[in-house]
Protein backbone atom coordinates (compact mmCIF):
# COMPACT_ATOMS: atom_id res chain seq x y z
CA UNK A 1 0.00 0.00 0.00
CA UNK A 2 1.53 3.31 -1.09
CA UNK A 3 1.55 6.35 1.15
CA UNK A 4 -0.92 9.04 0.23
CA UNK A 5 0.67 12.16 -1.25
CA UNK A 6 0.62 15.07 1.23
CA UNK A 7 -1.64 17.94 0.26
CA UNK A 8 0.02 20.94 -1.29
CA UNK A 9 -0.40 24.14 0.69
CA UNK A 10 -1.08 27.79 -0.08
CA UNK A 11 -0.67 30.90 2.02
CA UNK A 12 -2.99 33.77 1.13
CA UNK A 13 -1.76 37.15 2.34
CA UNK A 14 -4.29 39.90 2.94
CA UNK A 15 -2.73 42.93 4.61
CA UNK A 16 -6.22 44.11 5.47
CA UNK A 17 -9.44 42.82 7.01
CA UNK A 18 -10.05 39.27 5.81
CA UNK A 19 -13.80 39.61 6.41
CA UNK A 20 -13.94 42.54 4.00
CA UNK A 21 -11.86 40.78 1.34
CA UNK A 22 -14.43 38.52 -0.31
CA UNK A 23 -12.36 37.77 -3.42
CA UNK A 24 -9.50 36.35 -1.34
CA UNK A 25 -11.96 34.27 0.68
CA UNK A 26 -13.39 32.90 -2.57
CA UNK A 27 -9.82 32.05 -3.64
CA UNK A 28 -9.40 30.12 -0.38
CA UNK A 29 -12.61 28.15 -0.92
CA UNK A 30 -11.69 27.30 -4.52
CA UNK A 31 -8.20 26.19 -3.51
CA UNK A 32 -9.69 24.03 -0.75
CA UNK A 33 -12.19 22.52 -3.19
CA UNK A 34 -9.23 21.50 -5.33
CA UNK A 35 -7.55 19.65 -2.48
CA UNK A 36 -5.06 22.24 -1.22
CA UNK A 37 -4.49 23.26 2.39
CA UNK A 38 -4.97 26.99 2.82
CA UNK A 39 -3.71 29.43 5.44
CA UNK A 40 -5.13 32.95 5.20
CA UNK A 41 -2.90 35.54 6.89
CA UNK A 42 -4.45 38.90 7.66
CA UNK A 43 -6.42 41.03 10.09
CA UNK A 44 -9.71 39.80 11.57
CA UNK A 45 -11.60 43.02 12.31
CA UNK A 46 -14.79 41.45 10.97
CA UNK A 47 -15.88 37.85 10.69
CA UNK A 48 -15.03 35.92 7.51
CA UNK A 49 -17.60 33.84 5.66
CA UNK A 50 -19.08 30.92 7.56
CA UNK A 51 -17.96 28.60 4.74
CA UNK A 52 -14.37 29.72 5.33
CA UNK A 53 -14.54 29.39 9.11
CA UNK A 54 -16.03 25.90 8.94
CA UNK A 55 -13.80 24.55 6.16
CA UNK A 56 -11.39 21.94 7.57
CA UNK A 57 -8.78 22.72 4.89
CA UNK A 58 -8.66 26.45 5.71
CA UNK A 59 -6.96 28.04 8.70
CA UNK A 60 -6.71 31.73 9.56
CA UNK A 61 -3.62 33.28 11.09
CA UNK A 62 -4.33 36.66 12.62
CA UNK A 63 -1.98 39.60 12.21
CA UNK A 64 -1.91 42.15 15.02
CA UNK A 65 -2.07 45.85 14.27
CA UNK A 66 -0.25 48.62 16.10
CA UNK A 67 -1.42 52.23 16.03
CA UNK A 68 1.11 54.97 15.35
CA UNK A 69 -0.86 58.19 15.81
CA UNK A 70 1.74 60.51 17.31
CA UNK A 71 4.36 62.62 15.62
CA UNK A 72 4.61 63.82 12.01
CA UNK A 73 2.57 62.00 9.37
CA UNK A 74 5.76 60.99 7.56
CA UNK A 75 7.09 59.21 10.66
CA UNK A 76 3.71 57.55 11.32
CA UNK A 77 3.65 56.03 7.83
CA UNK A 78 7.24 54.79 8.11
CA UNK A 79 6.66 53.22 11.54
CA UNK A 80 3.45 51.55 10.39
CA UNK A 81 5.16 50.04 7.34
CA UNK A 82 8.10 48.78 9.44
CA UNK A 83 5.76 47.18 12.00
CA UNK A 84 3.68 45.52 9.29
CA UNK A 85 6.78 44.27 7.50
CA UNK A 86 8.27 42.69 10.64
CA UNK A 87 5.01 41.15 11.86
CA UNK A 88 4.11 39.78 8.40
CA UNK A 89 7.56 38.29 7.75
CA UNK A 90 7.73 36.65 11.17
CA UNK A 91 4.21 35.27 10.72
CA UNK A 92 5.13 33.81 7.33
CA UNK A 93 8.18 32.13 8.85
CA UNK A 94 6.43 30.87 11.97
CA UNK A 95 3.58 29.30 10.00
CA UNK A 96 6.03 27.09 8.12
CA UNK A 97 6.69 26.38 4.48
CA UNK A 98 4.15 26.24 1.66
CA UNK A 99 4.08 25.51 -2.04
CA UNK A 100 2.40 28.71 -3.19
CA UNK A 101 1.93 32.22 -1.84
CA UNK A 102 -1.02 34.20 -3.19
CA UNK A 103 -0.83 37.89 -2.32
CA UNK A 104 -3.54 40.53 -2.60
CA UNK A 105 -2.46 43.87 -4.03
CA UNK A 106 -3.05 46.57 -2.79
CA UNK A 107 -1.56 47.33 -0.38
CA UNK A 108 1.80 46.94 -2.13
CA UNK A 109 4.02 48.17 0.71
CA UNK A 110 5.21 46.36 2.69
CA UNK A 111 3.28 43.34 1.37
CA UNK A 112 5.03 42.74 -1.96
CA UNK A 113 8.65 43.16 -0.70
CA UNK A 114 8.02 40.94 2.33
CA UNK A 115 6.25 38.23 0.33
CA UNK A 116 8.96 38.27 -2.32
CA UNK A 117 11.68 37.89 0.33
CA UNK A 118 9.83 34.99 1.94
CA UNK A 119 9.38 33.27 -1.42
CA UNK A 120 13.09 33.65 -2.22
CA UNK A 121 14.13 32.22 1.15
CA UNK A 122 11.71 29.29 1.02
CA UNK A 123 11.63 28.75 -2.77
CA UNK A 124 7.89 29.27 -2.86
CA UNK A 125 5.95 30.10 -6.02
CA UNK A 126 4.79 33.76 -5.82
CA UNK A 127 1.42 34.80 -7.30
CA UNK A 128 -0.07 38.30 -7.14
CA UNK A 129 -3.77 39.06 -7.50
CA UNK A 130 -3.99 42.67 -8.72
CA UNK A 131 -7.23 44.25 -7.47
CA UNK A 132 -5.99 47.80 -8.03
CA UNK A 133 -2.81 49.85 -7.65
CA UNK A 134 -1.67 50.83 -4.18
CA UNK A 135 0.01 54.01 -5.38
CA UNK A 136 -3.21 55.36 -6.92
CA UNK A 137 -5.05 54.83 -3.62
CA UNK A 138 -2.21 56.50 -1.72
CA UNK A 139 -2.35 59.47 -4.11
CA UNK A 140 -5.94 60.20 -3.03
CA UNK A 141 -4.99 61.15 0.51
CA UNK A 142 -1.28 62.01 0.65
CA UNK A 143 -0.30 65.64 1.13
CA UNK A 144 1.94 67.43 -1.44
CA UNK A 145 4.77 67.55 1.10
CA UNK A 146 4.93 63.73 1.10
CA UNK A 147 5.07 63.20 -2.68
CA UNK A 148 8.51 61.63 -2.30
CA UNK A 149 6.84 58.80 -0.37
CA UNK A 150 4.41 58.28 -3.25
CA UNK A 151 7.32 58.00 -5.72
CA UNK A 152 9.07 55.44 -3.51
CA UNK A 153 5.83 53.49 -3.07
CA UNK A 154 5.22 53.43 -6.84
CA UNK A 155 8.76 52.21 -7.52
CA UNK A 156 8.46 49.42 -4.94
CA UNK A 157 5.06 48.36 -6.27
CA UNK A 158 6.41 48.11 -9.81
CA UNK A 159 9.75 46.47 -8.93
CA UNK A 160 8.41 43.80 -6.60
CA UNK A 161 5.25 43.38 -8.64
CA UNK A 162 7.42 42.30 -11.56
CA UNK A 163 9.10 39.67 -9.37
CA UNK A 164 6.12 37.30 -9.12
CA UNK A 165 5.95 34.17 -11.28
CA UNK A 166 2.24 34.56 -12.06
CA UNK A 167 -0.29 37.35 -12.01
CA UNK A 168 -4.06 37.60 -11.86
CA UNK A 169 -6.06 40.81 -12.33
CA UNK A 170 -9.68 41.90 -12.29
CA UNK A 171 -10.24 43.56 -15.69
CA UNK A 172 -8.90 43.60 -19.24
CA UNK A 173 -8.21 47.32 -18.79
CA UNK A 174 -5.86 46.47 -15.89
CA UNK A 175 -4.27 43.63 -17.87
CA UNK A 176 -3.48 46.07 -20.68
CA UNK A 177 -2.16 48.71 -18.26
CA UNK A 178 0.10 46.21 -16.43
CA UNK A 179 1.54 44.98 -19.71
CA UNK A 180 2.04 48.40 -21.31
CA UNK A 181 3.54 50.18 -18.31
CA UNK A 182 5.21 47.51 -16.17
CA UNK A 183 5.70 44.63 -18.64
CA UNK A 184 3.59 42.33 -16.44
CA UNK A 185 1.50 39.71 -18.24
CA UNK A 186 -1.56 38.99 -16.09
CA UNK A 187 -4.46 36.60 -16.53
CA UNK A 188 -7.88 38.23 -16.18
CA UNK A 189 -9.99 36.57 -13.50
CA UNK A 190 -13.24 38.49 -13.45
CA UNK A 191 -15.06 38.68 -10.16
CA UNK A 192 -18.08 36.44 -10.41
CA UNK A 193 -20.65 35.82 -7.70
CA UNK A 194 -20.41 32.59 -5.74
CA UNK A 195 -23.58 30.53 -5.37
CA UNK A 196 -24.54 32.25 -2.10
CA UNK A 197 -25.67 35.22 -4.22
CA UNK A 198 -28.82 34.18 -6.05
CA UNK A 199 -32.44 35.30 -6.46
CA UNK A 200 -34.63 34.21 -3.54
CA UNK A 201 -38.27 33.29 -3.10
CA UNK A 202 -41.01 35.49 -1.67
CA UNK A 203 -41.08 33.25 1.40
CA UNK A 204 -37.36 33.84 1.96
CA UNK A 205 -37.89 37.57 1.52
CA UNK A 206 -40.72 37.54 4.03
CA UNK A 207 -38.63 35.68 6.61
CA UNK A 208 -35.77 38.14 6.07
CA UNK A 209 -38.03 41.19 6.40
CA UNK A 210 -39.38 39.82 9.67
CA UNK A 211 -35.85 39.43 10.99
CA UNK A 212 -34.78 42.84 9.68
CA UNK A 213 -37.79 44.67 11.09
CA UNK A 214 -37.31 43.06 14.50
CA UNK A 215 -33.68 44.17 14.48
CA UNK A 216 -34.50 47.77 13.50
CA UNK A 217 -37.92 48.44 15.08
CA UNK A 218 -37.30 52.19 15.21
CA UNK A 219 -37.36 52.28 11.40
CA UNK A 220 -39.70 49.37 10.66
CA UNK A 221 -42.20 49.11 13.53
CA UNK A 222 -44.22 45.95 13.04
CA UNK A 223 -47.03 47.37 15.18
CA UNK A 224 -47.69 49.88 12.38
CA UNK A 225 -48.76 47.02 10.12
CA UNK A 226 -50.45 44.81 12.65
CA UNK A 227 -49.84 43.01 15.89
CA UNK A 228 -46.14 43.22 16.84
CA UNK A 229 -46.19 39.45 17.37
CA UNK A 230 -47.85 38.74 14.01
CA UNK A 231 -45.44 36.85 11.75
CA UNK A 232 -47.82 37.11 8.78
CA UNK A 233 -47.13 40.72 7.90
CA UNK A 234 -44.19 43.08 7.40
CA UNK A 235 -44.02 46.54 5.78
CA UNK A 236 -43.09 44.76 2.52
CA UNK A 237 -44.88 41.39 2.54
CA UNK A 238 -47.91 39.60 3.93
CA UNK A 239 -49.19 36.05 4.12
CA UNK A 240 -52.68 35.52 2.69
CA UNK A 241 -54.16 32.02 2.74
CA UNK A 242 -50.73 30.60 3.51
CA UNK A 243 -49.28 32.29 0.43
CA UNK A 244 -46.68 35.10 0.66
CA UNK A 245 -47.50 38.19 -1.39
CA UNK A 246 -45.83 41.55 -1.84
CA UNK A 247 -47.89 44.37 -0.32
CA UNK A 248 -49.31 46.89 -2.75
CA UNK A 249 -48.59 49.71 -0.29
CA UNK A 250 -45.00 48.65 0.43
CA UNK A 251 -42.13 51.17 0.33
CA UNK A 252 -39.45 50.98 -2.32
CA UNK A 253 -36.24 49.33 -1.14
CA UNK A 254 -32.95 50.83 -2.33
CA UNK A 255 -29.69 49.10 -1.41
CA UNK A 256 -26.03 50.09 -1.42
CA UNK A 257 -22.86 48.87 0.27
CA UNK A 258 -19.66 50.79 0.83
CA UNK A 259 -16.30 50.82 2.54
CA UNK A 260 -16.82 54.54 3.28
CA UNK A 261 -13.59 55.60 1.55
CA UNK A 262 -12.71 58.75 -0.47
CA UNK A 263 -13.24 56.97 -3.80
CA UNK A 264 -16.98 56.63 -3.02
CA UNK A 265 -18.74 59.98 -2.82
CA UNK A 266 -21.94 59.24 -0.93
CA UNK A 267 -22.84 62.90 -1.13
CA UNK A 268 -24.07 62.03 -4.64
CA UNK A 269 -26.61 59.56 -3.23
CA UNK A 270 -27.71 61.91 -0.44
CA UNK A 271 -28.33 64.68 -2.98
CA UNK A 272 -30.36 62.27 -5.12
CA UNK A 273 -32.40 61.20 -2.08
CA UNK A 274 -33.10 64.86 -1.30
CA UNK A 275 -34.51 65.24 -4.81
CA UNK A 276 -36.62 62.12 -4.24
CA UNK A 277 -37.96 63.59 -0.99
CA UNK A 278 -38.88 66.85 -2.71
CA UNK A 279 -40.41 65.09 -5.71
CA UNK A 280 -42.50 62.90 -3.40
CA UNK A 281 -44.07 66.08 -1.99
CA UNK A 282 -44.92 67.28 -5.49
CA UNK A 283 -46.37 64.08 -6.90
CA UNK A 284 -48.62 61.31 -5.67
CA UNK A 285 -46.94 58.64 -7.79
CA UNK A 286 -43.92 57.78 -5.63
CA UNK A 287 -43.81 55.36 -2.68
CA UNK A 288 -41.96 55.98 0.53
CA UNK A 289 -38.35 54.90 0.10
CA UNK A 290 -36.16 52.81 2.40
CA UNK A 291 -32.45 53.12 1.65
CA UNK A 292 -30.24 50.48 3.27
CA UNK A 293 -26.50 51.25 3.23
CA UNK A 294 -24.17 48.68 4.77
CA UNK A 295 -20.43 48.76 5.39
CA UNK A 296 -17.62 49.99 7.59
CA UNK A 297 -14.89 52.49 6.88
CA UNK A 298 -13.09 55.72 7.78
CA UNK A 299 -15.72 58.17 6.50
CA UNK A 300 -18.75 56.38 7.93
CA UNK A 301 -19.32 58.79 10.83
CA UNK A 302 -19.01 61.78 8.51
CA UNK A 303 -21.88 60.53 6.37
CA UNK A 304 -23.93 59.36 9.36
CA UNK A 305 -23.80 62.93 10.66
CA UNK A 306 -24.98 64.23 7.27
CA UNK A 307 -27.83 61.71 7.21
CA UNK A 308 -28.85 62.62 10.78
CA UNK A 309 -29.10 66.28 9.78
CA UNK A 310 -31.80 65.52 7.21
CA UNK A 311 -35.46 65.93 8.13
CA UNK A 312 -36.91 63.66 5.50
CA UNK A 313 -40.49 62.46 5.85
CA UNK A 314 -40.62 60.07 2.90
CA UNK A 315 -37.06 58.71 2.77
CA UNK A 316 -35.53 56.57 5.52
CA UNK A 317 -31.84 55.70 5.53
CA UNK A 318 -30.65 52.70 7.58
CA UNK A 319 -26.94 51.89 7.96
CA UNK A 320 -26.59 48.39 9.46
CA UNK A 321 -23.49 46.21 9.49
CA UNK A 322 -24.80 42.96 8.05
CA UNK A 323 -23.40 39.56 8.93
CA UNK A 324 -21.82 37.69 6.03
CA UNK A 325 -24.73 35.24 6.06
CA UNK A 326 -27.35 38.02 5.95
CA UNK A 327 -25.74 40.16 3.27
CA UNK A 328 -26.74 38.03 0.23
CA UNK A 329 -30.34 37.87 1.47
CA UNK A 330 -30.51 41.65 1.87
CA UNK A 331 -29.15 42.15 -1.65
CA UNK A 332 -31.69 39.73 -3.14
CA UNK A 333 -34.57 41.43 -1.29
CA UNK A 334 -34.00 44.95 -2.67
CA UNK A 335 -35.73 46.60 -5.62
CA UNK A 336 -32.75 48.56 -6.94
CA UNK A 337 -29.03 48.77 -6.12
CA UNK A 338 -26.71 51.79 -6.13
CA UNK A 339 -22.93 51.68 -6.50
CA UNK A 340 -20.74 54.77 -5.98
CA UNK A 341 -17.37 53.06 -6.38
CA UNK A 342 -15.19 55.02 -8.81
CA UNK A 343 -11.77 53.28 -8.58
CA UNK A 344 -8.60 55.23 -7.82
CA UNK A 345 -6.98 53.80 -10.95
CA UNK A 346 -10.07 53.45 -13.13
CA UNK A 347 -9.00 49.86 -13.77
CA UNK A 348 -10.90 47.72 -11.26
CA UNK A 349 -14.55 46.78 -11.07
CA UNK A 350 -16.80 46.97 -7.99
CA UNK A 351 -17.38 43.55 -6.45
CA UNK A 352 -20.59 44.82 -4.88
CA UNK A 353 -22.12 45.12 -8.37
CA UNK A 354 -21.05 41.54 -9.12
CA UNK A 355 -22.82 40.41 -5.95
CA UNK A 356 -25.95 42.39 -6.83
CA UNK A 357 -26.03 40.91 -10.32
CA UNK A 358 -25.61 37.44 -8.84
CA UNK A 359 -28.69 38.06 -6.70
CA UNK A 360 -30.66 39.37 -9.69
CA UNK A 361 -30.62 43.03 -8.58
CA UNK A 362 -30.36 45.75 -11.27
CA UNK A 363 -27.89 48.50 -10.36
CA UNK A 364 -27.34 52.20 -10.88
CA UNK A 365 -23.52 52.62 -10.96
CA UNK A 366 -21.45 55.77 -11.17
CA UNK A 367 -19.41 55.98 -14.34
CA UNK A 368 -15.66 55.43 -14.58
CA UNK A 369 -13.15 54.21 -17.14
CA UNK A 370 -13.77 50.45 -17.44
CA UNK A 371 -17.22 50.07 -15.87
CA UNK A 372 -18.75 48.97 -19.17
CA UNK A 373 -16.87 45.68 -18.84
CA UNK A 374 -19.54 44.91 -16.25
CA UNK A 375 -22.54 47.28 -16.51
CA UNK A 376 -24.32 47.87 -19.83
CA UNK A 377 -26.52 50.95 -19.59
CA UNK A 378 -30.19 50.12 -20.03
CA UNK A 379 -29.45 46.39 -20.40
CA UNK A 380 -28.51 45.06 -16.97
CA UNK A 381 -28.41 48.36 -15.09
CA UNK A 382 -27.79 52.07 -15.47
CA UNK A 383 -24.67 54.26 -15.54
CA UNK A 384 -24.75 57.83 -14.22
CA UNK A 385 -22.25 60.64 -13.73
CA UNK A 386 -24.00 63.17 -11.47
CA UNK A 387 -26.44 63.28 -8.58
CA UNK A 388 -28.99 64.81 -10.95
CA UNK A 389 -28.73 61.81 -13.28
CA UNK A 390 -28.96 59.41 -10.33
CA UNK A 391 -32.03 61.15 -8.91
CA UNK A 392 -33.80 60.88 -12.27
CA UNK A 393 -32.99 57.16 -12.44
CA UNK A 394 -34.27 56.49 -8.91
CA UNK A 395 -37.43 58.58 -9.36
CA UNK A 396 -38.07 56.98 -12.75
CA UNK A 397 -37.58 53.46 -11.37
CA UNK A 398 -40.04 53.94 -8.51
CA UNK A 399 -42.61 56.15 -10.27
CA UNK A 400 -45.98 54.42 -9.98
CA UNK A 401 -44.38 51.67 -7.86
CA UNK A 402 -45.34 48.87 -7.62
CA UNK A 403 -47.93 49.05 -10.41
CA UNK A 404 -45.99 50.77 -13.20
CA UNK A 405 -46.37 48.14 -15.95
CA UNK A 406 -43.75 49.70 -18.24
CA UNK A 407 -41.14 49.92 -15.49
CA UNK A 408 -42.03 46.43 -14.29
CA UNK A 409 -41.37 45.12 -17.80
CA UNK A 410 -38.01 46.91 -17.83
CA UNK A 411 -37.11 45.36 -14.48
CA UNK A 412 -38.12 41.91 -15.71
CA UNK A 413 -36.03 42.31 -18.88
CA UNK A 414 -33.01 43.38 -16.82
CA UNK A 415 -33.42 40.43 -14.48
CA UNK A 416 -33.65 38.08 -17.47
CA UNK A 417 -30.40 39.60 -18.72
CA UNK A 418 -28.83 39.04 -15.30
CA UNK A 419 -29.68 35.33 -15.48
CA UNK A 420 -27.14 35.11 -18.32
CA UNK A 421 -24.55 36.75 -16.06
CA UNK A 422 -25.40 34.25 -13.32
CA UNK A 423 -24.59 31.31 -15.59
CA UNK A 424 -20.87 31.91 -14.95
CA UNK A 425 -20.13 31.62 -11.25
CA UNK A 426 -16.90 32.19 -9.34
CA UNK A 427 -16.22 28.49 -8.91
CA UNK A 428 -16.33 27.61 -12.62
CA UNK A 429 -14.52 30.77 -13.67
CA UNK A 430 -11.73 30.13 -11.13
CA UNK A 431 -11.26 26.55 -12.32
CA UNK A 432 -11.00 27.76 -15.89
CA UNK A 433 -8.58 30.66 -15.37
CA UNK A 434 -6.74 30.35 -12.05
CA UNK A 435 -6.52 26.66 -11.22
CA UNK A 436 -3.59 26.05 -13.58
CA UNK A 437 -1.28 28.25 -11.46
CA UNK A 438 -1.68 25.92 -8.48
CA UNK A 439 -1.01 22.61 -10.23
From TrEMBL:
Compartments in which it is found: Endoplasmic reticulum membrane
Q: Give the keywords, sorted.
A: Endoplasmic reticulum, Glycosyltransferase, Membrane, Transferase, Transmembrane, Transmembrane helix
One Gene Ontology cellular component annotation held by this UniProt entry = endoplasmic reticulum membrane
Entry's Pfam families? Glyco_trans_1_4
Question: Which Gene3D superfamilies is this protein grouped with?
Answer: Glycogen Phosphorylase B
> Could you cite one Gene Ontology molecular function of this protein?
mannosyltransferase activity
Give the membrane topology, semicolon-separated if more than one.
Single-pass membrane protein
Task: State which pathway it belongs to.
Answer: Protein modification; protein glycosylation
Q: What is its main location?
A: endoplasmic reticulum
The name on file for this protein is: Chitobiosyldiphosphodolichol beta-mannosyltransferase
Amino acid sequence: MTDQQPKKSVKIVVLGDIGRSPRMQYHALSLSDNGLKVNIIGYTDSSPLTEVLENPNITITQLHSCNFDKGPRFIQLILKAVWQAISLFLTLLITGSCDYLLCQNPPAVPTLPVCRLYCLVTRTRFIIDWHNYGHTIMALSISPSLKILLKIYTFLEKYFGQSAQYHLCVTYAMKEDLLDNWNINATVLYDRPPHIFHPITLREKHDWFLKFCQKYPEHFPLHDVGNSGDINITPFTQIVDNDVKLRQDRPGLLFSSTSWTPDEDFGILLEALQVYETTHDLTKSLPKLICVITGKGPMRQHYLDLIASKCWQHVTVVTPWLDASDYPTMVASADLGVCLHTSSSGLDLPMKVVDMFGAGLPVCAVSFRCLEELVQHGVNGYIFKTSDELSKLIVGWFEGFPNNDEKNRTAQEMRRELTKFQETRWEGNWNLRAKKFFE
